[in-house]
Amino acid sequence: MEKEYAIEFRHVSKIYSLKSKNKEHAINKRFYALKDINFKIPKGEVVGILGTNGSGKSTMSIILAGISEVDEGEMIVNGEQALIAINTGLNPQLTGLENIELKGALLGLSKKRIKEITEGVIEFAEIGDFLYQPVKKYSSGMKSRLGFSINLCLDPDILIVDEALSVGDKGFAQKCINKMKELKATGKTIVFISHSLPQVRGFCDTAMWIEGGMLKEYGNIEEVCDHYAEYVDYYNALDNKAKKKERDEKFNKRIIPNVKKKGFFDRIFG
Ligand SMILES: Nc1ncnc2c1ncn2[C@@H]1O[C@H](COP(=O)(O)OP(=O)(O)OP(=O)(O)O)[C@@H](O)[C@H]1O
């Protein structure tokens, strides 16, 4: 029987612009934050996404969550999505409670369902009376608690966890891992973006390594984690000059050459 897939990326690319008007360092470039990414994540799989700083992990998470559109290729998703990310999806002007209500309303949930979710969040997030304060007054750990709890209580088919555990305290991080284990047991698909190899090894079924906007490896958890760890050790052992060279090489592969607009003669004779 053919496997059912929760998420499929077909030649997905995301392009950003880099602009600076500084006279000495004027920049006007377009580059691939993600370049020609192909994969299929089976339903019920827990996949850990690894990659060094700037490799494209957060870009992938906002595409997965439907917050950002792809520029090339297509993403096919089966099921509702929820994003969990620090500061993402929370309106700082609104209180915690209003944020829950807004998210529920945007998803078209009934008043009864929103009330249930609110009760779940109050119990899970443990942020007390801060629930009635604007989110701009929250610490980063509290924002993470609220964002994480809302998305868990929404009970999505696909859960995207983007570094949410790195800012909370240890106790809350463990509580989240336990809750995610419960979700895993019910067959939910989880995409877990993390810098922590031990967390990925301990929790995920498979791992995906993104480097320089490209998909380097996806599959066996131990193999991918070992290869990623080897790369991080190799990079850290380089001297500063070699590190810069490596970063520049990776970045240059992502730059999209400027295509000059055709002039009058080129259009007629070219
Ligand atoms: N809105 C944006 N406009 C322009 N460039 C962006 C934008 N968002 C991200 N980038 C760039 O795209 C690349 C990928 O960024 P992304 O945040 O996805 O990486 P990451 O793997 O999550 O990094 P980190 O581990 O440091 O959080 C980086 O070079 C980043 O500077």
Q: What distance lies between the first and last C-alpha atoms, to the nearest angstrom?
A: 54 Å
What class would the helix/strand composition place it in? alpha/beta
> Order of strands across the widest beta sheet?
5-6-7-3-8-9
Using only C-alpha atoms, the radius of gyration works out to 21 Å
Key phrases:
270 residues; six-stranded mixed sheet; four-stranded antiparallel sheet; 9 helices; binds adenosine-5'-triphosphate; ABC_transporter-like_CS; ATP hydrolysis activity; ABC_transporter-like_ATP-bd; ATP binding
What does this structure look like?
This protein has 270 residues and is of the alpha/beta class. It has helices at 57-64, 96-106, 111-125, 140-153, 170-185, 197-203, 221-237, 240-252, 264-269, and strands spanning 5-20, 27-42, 46-50, 72-77, 81-85, 158-162, 189-193, 206-211, 214-220, 255-256. The chain has a six-stranded mixed sheet with strand order 5-6-7-3-8-9, sandwiched between helices. The chain has a four-stranded antiparallel sheet with strand order 4-1-2-10, with helices on one face. The mean pLDDT is 88. It binds adenosine-5'-triphosphate.
